[in-house]
What we know:
- The complex is a heterodimer of chains A (320) and B (267).
- Chain A folds into 2 domains: 4-215, 3-Layer(aba) Sandwich (Rossmann fold); 227-293, Protein-tyrosine phosphatase receptor IA-2 ectodomain (Alpha-Beta Plaits, 2-Layer Sandwich).
- In chain A, 36% of the residues lie in helices and 27% in strands.
- Chain A contains 11 helices and 14 strands.
- Chain A has helices spanning 42-49, 71-77, 93-103, 108-121, 137-149, 167-182, 194-200, 217-225, 239-246, 268-281, 296-304; strands at residues 4-13, 16-26, 31-35, 57-62, 65-66, 78-81, 155-159, 186-191, 203-207, 211-215, 227-233, 251-257, 260-265, 286-292.
- Chain A has a 6-stranded mixed beta sheet with strand order 6-7-8-3-9-10, sandwiched between helices. Chain A has a 4-stranded antiparallel beta sheet with strand order 2-1-4-5, covered by helices on one side.
- The longest helix of chain A is centred in the middle third of the chain and has 16 residues, at 167-182.
- By secondary structure, chain B is mainly alpha-helical.
- Chain B has one domain.
- Helix content of chain B is 80%, strand content 0%.
- Chain B has helices at residues 8-23, 26-50, 57-66, 75-86, 88-113, 116-120, 126-159, 162-168, 171-198, 202-209, 214-224, 232-256, 259-265.
- In chain B, helix 9 packs across helix 10 (202-209).
- The A-B interface holds A 13, 47, 50, 52-54, 72-73, 75-76, 78-80, 82-91, 95, 99-100, 102-105, 144, 147-148, 320 and B 7, 9-10, 13, 17, 20-21, 24-25, 113-125, 259-260, 263-264.
Amino acid sequence: MPVLRMEGLGRKFGATWAVRDLSLDVRAGEVLGLLGPNGAGKTTTVRLLAALIAPTAGHAWVDGIEIREAPDEIRARVGILTETPGLYDKLSAERNLDYFGKLHRLPAAVRAERIERWMVALGMWDRRRDPAGTLSKGTKQKLAIIRALLHEPRVVFLDEPTAALDPEAAYVVREAIAILRAEGRTIVLCTHNLDEAERLCDRIAFLRGSLLRVDSPARLRGELGGGRVTIRLAEPASPALIAAVEALSVVRLVEHESGTLGVRVENEKHDAPIVVRAIVDAGGGVVEVRPEVGTLEQVYFEIMGVRPGAGDPDSAREVA
Amino acid sequence: MRLAMPRPDIVAAVVTRDWEETLRNRLLLATILVPPVVLTIVPLIVGGVTTGLPLPAAVARQAIALRPDWASLSPGELTAALVIQQFLVFFLMMPAYIPLSIASYSIIGEKTSRSLEAVLSTPIRTIELLAGKAISALLPGVAVGWLTYVALIGLTAMLYSPGLVGVVTDDSWLAGVFLLGPAVGLASVVAGVIVSARVSDPRTAQQIGGIIIVPLVGVAVIQASATVLFGGPSYALGALIVLIISLMGLVLGARLFGRETILTRWR
């Protein structure tokens, strides 16, 4: 049975749907990445699943509980790392955690034990008495992660955990997420960072108001990103040569600029010789062949239907 | 529909945390602690200075007509009684502005630090959050007002005649300090919640919420002329009216404190 189940889930703000018709299952212990541009509905989806806001349409279950039926119970079973750490700067790191432990009605001894265990695990124990306001961004984010875990939630939502962090702080936070992953927790990770999603997620869901695609990073790269072969020619390509390459079944797209062909193929290693043979057969001369592995970035642009620098068609649609 | 009752342990956790933060906020602490000291000392000094200065005969007659119990006071004591009586209004302002300050800092502080979303992600009920915020703001204001009043009585007894002690312990003071004061405090908390939901700076919230003090200033002006001296029943009636208005405001405040409203509209 999935830990998270969504069926036609949607939420409208005024006349605008932030997210709609979302149907997806997340298995226990799975790390699901939610990818999409700003305003794609990632945060709204997390808020819906955490029973912070009510859906306008559809249903969702967390650990078998429908989100509208027992929102208090849902909130007891999920942990959220919000976009900003949202800590009380004047209180110590320990007191921040203790307060949230009380809100989860954990007994004092349990709070003390879990605070110590997590602070030690994330290398924060020495900073426990420091006011939260004095901690670095990365350490604050780690503190917020511990806060989300104090009540031992079945599902952890991490909403852009490394946004606005410098590389060192982002590394520290990613290490913390890797620990959670190793513990077998079910994690939903909203991120703009494609590399982070690829490294940490079992599956990636692309969202833009609705669910566009969900699959493992490897399958997505294989099916959509494919590979690219950059071929430097001895002379600029003739229309006949380009047509010959385009006619190949393994070729998806051909770009030609200043005597260089950029050829999108399904598998760069397997398909490069086929393309080279076609060029030679069409009378072209090959100076250099450079196969390039498909990236999640390519997948992202393909699924979102955008080209870098061409602008975001939905950029005006910023909601919640 | 059955209303979910606030759970005391959760409310206590909110109150304790708010107080911890208040104690670390020097500016807010000064706002809470300085005025009570001033309000204890100033009435006594002003009362002492004016004791030797008799009122104009017409004003004295009017004051005694309004407050027959002051007829036994000497002319000098009558002056001091009239002056000290004016300070009752300030004792009503204390439970108004202290909760307003605390509520403004507390709610806007949570807004600016973006901690409310994390709080609302826990199983806390919004009524518990609202109750915690209200209690953490109201109690210090009321407690400080009462303690200051007790100090005023003690010092009056030490420094002045039993007649003046009678003035500061008559039914107008008792009803004012113990009934109208807390009611005004509650109104102030409600104003703090409503205004704080709409603005993002504690000082702006205090300035706007400070409108609540205007009627009290009106009372002060009327009393200063000695044309009207409000007695215990007037203050008790005032407390009832303020309480009703506060409860109506509380319904509006509770709506503004809805989980979805906070998450999607508070900026």
